[in-house]
Design brief:
Strand content: 5-15%
CATH topology of the largest domain: Rossmann fold
Low-confidence stretches: none
Shape: globular
Helix content: 25-40%
Number of helices: 11
Distance between the termini: 27 Å
Oligomer: single chain
Strand order of the largest sheet: 7-6-5-8-9-10
Largest sheet: 6 strands, parallel
CATH class of the largest domain: Alpha Beta
Structural class: alpha/beta
CATH superfamily of the largest domain: Glycogen Phosphorylase B
Number of domains: 2
Mean pLDDT: 96
Order of helices and strands: HEEHEHEEHEHEHEHEHEHHH
CATH architecture of the largest domain: 3-Layer(aba) Sandwich
Number of strands: 10
């Protein structure tokens, strides 16, 4: 695996850069570093690997220089310039992280593999406390202001966790910070794994009021793994991740979300079971393994 020196994956990890850079402060510099790392990693991988699975678009440009098959997982939102770039690499096998994402692309080799999570990292908490939670980037498209509106409509306290990136500092200062009173609306800052377990696990429900076509939304799985239902707006992948009435509710608007928050009726262990059955890391890994086998089998036939 090629990552950065901070990675703690339990396999051999090779890297050029010791530290990650997030949030990105200088996009041009980050782009050059990504290109440098990717080109080095692919050259090195050609010594040992039968297949190269890339996680960033830059990588597939190097597929022109080798006969090794490439797989690329599409992690970000749909961008027309990237779709035009992908079309010029039809030999690559593309993986979407949701069917909603797949519908936005027209590529010959395309499939969906949903994200999975390591359920051993998340604690099931059956006795919930009376508050709602929101975890994510503090940004308009994530709907942080809508989560606050739901709290005000219902009178149910809201705890907000997430980073404030430089690009959205004004949004936070003008629309979010004035609403934080420490009683009805509380901001707890960025959340690591332990903080997520605590915040999500004890919450009545997690609000996911997105205002865009979310490619996946991993935090929905994290909440449900803690036995906490998700109340979400229906953009992008949401209908694939949240099963209405089983692991949460897909809400039509703010009013509907507030109404759902006041009439929650979910068993925490049933919500957790839904994730175990549909979004475990084992299920994701098995699907990727089958994809690799299929790609390599077709390569042998073509040869």
């Amino acid at each position: 695996m090629y990552a950065n020196g901070q990675s703690n994956v339990q396999i051999e990890c090779r890297w050029l850069y010791q530290n990650s850079e997030w949030p990105i402060k200088q996009p041009e510099r980050a782009w050059v570093r990504e290109l440098h790392h990717t080109s080095w990693a692919i050259k090195d991988a050609l010594n040992d690997c039968n297949l190269i699975h890339a996680q960033s678009p830059q990588a597939i440009a190097f597929s022109h220089f080798t006969e090794r098959p490439f797989v690329l997982t599409l992690h970000g939102p749909h961008e027309q310039y990237l779709s035009e770039y992908y079309v010029n690499h039809p030999q690559v096998r593309y993986v979407c992280i949701s069917d909603a994402q797949c519908r936005q692309e027209s590529l010959p080799h395309l499939c969906t593999i949903h994200h999975g999570i390591d359920l051993t990292l998340y604690r099931l908490i059956e006795q919930k406390q009376k508050y709602l939670s929101f975890i994510g980037r503090i940004a308009p498209i994530k709907g942080t202001h809508i989560a606050i509106d739901v709290a005000r409509r219902t009178g149910i306290p809201l705890k907000i966790a997430g980073e404030v990136q430089p690009a959205f500092r004004e949004y936070f200062d003008k629309k979010i910070r004035p609403q934080i009173d420490g009683t009805l609306v509380e901001y707890v800052g960025p959340a690591d794994l332990n903080a997520k377990n605590e915040l999500l696990g004890n919450s009545m429900a997690m609000l996911f009021p997105i205002q865009w076509n979310e490619p996946f939304g991993l935090v929905m799985l994290e909440a449900m793994a803690c036995g906490t239902p998700v109340l979400a707006m229906p953009g992008g992948s949401v209908p694939e991740v949240v099963q209405d009435g089983v692991s949460g509710h897909i809400c039509r608007n703010i009013r509907d979300m507030a109404k759902r928050a006041q009439s929650l009726d979910f068993r925490a262990n049933a919500v957790r079971h839904y994730v175990e059955e549909n979004f475990s890391i084992e299920k994701m890994v098995n699907k990727y393994a089958r994809l690799y086998e299929d790609v390599l089998r077709n390569e042998r036939v073509a040869a």
